[in-house]
Design goal:
The chain is of the alpha+beta class. It has 9 helices and 8 strands.
Length: about 190
């Protein structure tokens, strides 16, 4: 069952007792969409928190020169959406789209906010989840600023080798911050 996948994902982060889990699980509903669906556009405020059951999504930025920069990919099992906009309820700079047909559990900010106010354990779960996301963002910042193109590519291969099979390479090149031509050359020469 879909909700059990969510429970399996959050249990190692922070356990909830039966009453807390019943409240938390009750706010999620099923949601599906086709590939290349923009779920949140730049300038909008993220109203939903998603839990990915199927598919691949990305958040990306479009610069003044119309060049895209992929910020993050999400895929099962993980939370998804534009996290900073969701948590602050402010307009985002990013787009959030599906790269493949996707299936989610989805809830709203208001529902999460009500539960965080009522249940300290749910607030702690959200805080821990946010802390792990921040940890990942900071590690990515180091990669982008300090690693060579080959080191960035090797890090991607070590962390998520399956992405090479399911995500177009132009998006992966954008994600690791290298030119698509360099990415193609590394595809042919770098082995783990």
């Amino acid at each position: 069952m879909e909700i059990e996948q969510l429970q399996q994902f959050i249990s190692p982060v922070h356990s909830l007792n039966d009453k807390e889990w019943a409240a938390f699980s009750s706010i999620w509903g099923s949601f599906a969409c086709k590939r290349k669906t923009v779920l949140t556009a730049a300038g909008e405020t993220e109203r939903h928190l998603y839990f990915v059951l199927e598919g691949v999504q990305r958040a990306f930025y479009i610069g003044e020169d119309q060049q895209e920069a992929t910020i993050v990919f999400t895929y099962p099992p993980s939370f998804s959406g534009v996290a900073d906009s969701f948590l602050t309820q402010t307009p985002t700079l990013f787009f959030f789209e599906t790269l493949t047909a996707s299936k989610f559990l989805r809830t709203t900010y208001k529902q999460v906010e009500i539960l965080m106010n009522e249940y300290p354990a749910i607030q702690k779960l959200i805080l821990k989840t946010t802390a792990f996301a921040l940890k990942g963002v900071l590690a990515r910042q180091v990669e982008l600023q300090c690693y060579t193109a080959e080191e960035k590519f090797r890090t991607l291969l070590k962390r998520s080798p399956h992405l090479l099979q399911i995500i177009p390479h132009k998006y992966l090149a954008s994600y690791v911050g290298i030119d698509p031509t360099t990415f193609s050359k590394l595809m042919g020469s770098v082995r783990l």
